[in-house]
Amino acid sequence: MFRVRKRVLGDIINGNPVFVGAPSTSVQGSGYETFYSKHAGRAKAVYVGANDGMLHAFDATSGLEMFAYVPNALIPGLNRLTSPNTGISHIWMAR
């Protein structure tokens, strides 16, 4: 009953992937040493928003998805993405 999709992940249109890894060692400031120590082993990940309404996090080494997050503000409109009768291939989810 849903629209047929070729892939599980929604299209990434105008999305800017962001790489996040360990904090920089060149930053200084009050409390930064504590922050650095706490997050030095942080997993390397790539984050990107997709046209499925989600922010996706991918392991930067394996490429496997770590998680996907749907912001509360987008939840009311997510049903539009499943409609087989939209007649359009993309629905901009921004409010």
Automatic annotation (TrEMBL):
It comes from Noviherbaspirillum saxi. InterPro entries: B-propeller_PilY1, Quinoprotein_ADH-like_sf. This is PilY1 beta-propeller domain-containing protein. It is found in: Fimbrium. GO terms for molecular function: metal ion binding. Pfam families: T4P_PilY1. Its main location: other. Belongs to the PilY1 family. The lineage of its organism: Bacteria, Pseudomonadati, Pseudomonadota, Betaproteobacteria, Burkholderiales. GO terms for cellular component: pilus. Keywords: Calcium, Fimbrium, Fimbrium biogenesis, Metal-binding.
